[in-house]
């Protein structure tokens, strides 16, 4: 048996695979763990034939299927039944950066927010600890409403100011007010997400 640790940004599962009512998270964990395979390893069992361990579930909405193969010098080979676990949270953010930009160049980051619960989500989107770039667009209107099982996007215009590799962290959380969603029934818990990507800033060759 293995004990699986969900990331801080994930929340408890409720009936039917949805988040339980009132589920909360106390802090944002920046998602940065995206392996293509998971828990492919050798372990020794105890005298009772079981193994207990801890691991972090990858930071994607993915259902992982797996089984165990056991070898014993007396009993031979044993194969467990297939089991599965699904990484899940109320919403996920996603954005794509250019491969590289030139220092002083402005570029647009389109942040998409995907709602995975059965109620509207009022979301506030922000840039965390901007370093190496300036925000040139107005982020005062950074709240959006995402209806159930849909996605919405928000554009941010940035300007690179430092040569080298810079990190851009986008974080989002349920807004303090549900006004942006109007009369739509809204999710009654709190949820957060954050993700960091690197961008290469080059020197302008014409200078």
Distance between the termini: 61 Å
- What is the level 1 CATH name of the largest domain? Mainly Beta
How would you characterize the largest beta sheet?
Answer: 6 strands, mixed
CATH architecture of the largest domain: Sandwich
The residue-averaged pLDDT reads: 81
| Overall 3D shape | flat
Number of strands: 16
Give the full name of the CATH homologous superfamily of the largest domain.
Answer: Immunoglobulins
Class by SSE composition: mainly beta
Q: What is the H/E order?
A: EEEEEEEEEEEEEEEE
Our count of domains comes out at 2
- Any idea of the CATH topology of the largest domain? Immunoglobulin-like
**Cα gyration radius (Å):** 21 Å
Low-confidence stretches: 1-28
Helical fraction equals: under 10%
* Number of H/I helices: 0
**Content of β-strand:** 35-45%
Description:
The protein is mainly β. The protein has two domains: 29-88, S-adenosyl-L-methionine-dependent methyltransferases; 91-202, Sandwich (Immunoglobulin-like), CATH 2.60.40.10. It has no helices and 16 strands. It has strands at 3-5, 30-31, 54-56, 63-66, 69-72, 76-79, 83-86, 91-95, 100-102, 106-115, 121-128, 133-135, 143-146, 151-160, 164-174, 192-202. Strands 2, 9, 11, 13, 15 and 16 form a six-stranded mixed beta sheet that branches. It starts with a strand and ends in a 5-residue tail after the last strand. Residues 1-28 have low confidence and may be disordered.
Summarize the topology:
Elements: E1 3-5, E2 30-31, E3 54-56, E4 63-66, E5 69-72, E6 76-79, E7 83-86, E8 91-95, E9 100-102, E10 106-115, E11 121-128, E12 133-135, E13 143-146, E14 151-160, E15 164-174, E16 192-202
Parallel strand pairs: 1-3, 2-16, 9-16
Antiparallel strand pairs: 4-7, 5-6, 8-10, 10-14, 11-13, 11-15, 12-14, 15-16
GO molecular function, one term: endopeptidase inhibitor activity
InterPro entries: A2M/Complement_sys (IPR050473), Ig-like_fold (IPR013783), Ig_E-set (IPR014756), Macroglobln_a2 (IPR001599)
Protein name: Alpha-2-macroglobulin
């Amino acid at each position: 048996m293995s004990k699986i640790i969900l990331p801080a940004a994930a929340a408890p599962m409720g009936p039917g695979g949805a988040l339980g009512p009132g589920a909360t998270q106390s802090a944002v964990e920046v998602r940065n763990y995206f392996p293509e395979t998971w828990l492919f390893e050798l372990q020794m069992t105890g005298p009772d034939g079981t193994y207990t361990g801890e691991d972090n579930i990858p930071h994607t909405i993915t259902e992982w299927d797996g089984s165990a193969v056991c070898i014993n010098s007396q009993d031979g080979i044993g194969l467990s039944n297939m089991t599965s676990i699904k990484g899940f949270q109320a919403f996920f953010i996603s954005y794509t950066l250019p491969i590289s930009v030139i220092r002083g160049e402005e570029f647009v980051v389109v942040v998409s927010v995907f709602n995975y619960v059965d109620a509207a989500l009022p979301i506030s989107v922000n840039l965390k600890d901007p370093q190496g770039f300036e925000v040139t667009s107005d982020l005062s209107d950074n709240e959006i409403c995402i209806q159930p099982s849909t996605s919405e996007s928000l554009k941010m215009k940035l300007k690179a100011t430092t040569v080298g590799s810079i990190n851009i962290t986008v974080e989002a959380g349920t807004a303090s007010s549900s006004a942006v969603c109007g009369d739509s029934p809204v999710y009654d818990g709190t949820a957060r997400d954050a993700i960091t990507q690197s961008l290469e800033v080059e020197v302008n060759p014409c200078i």
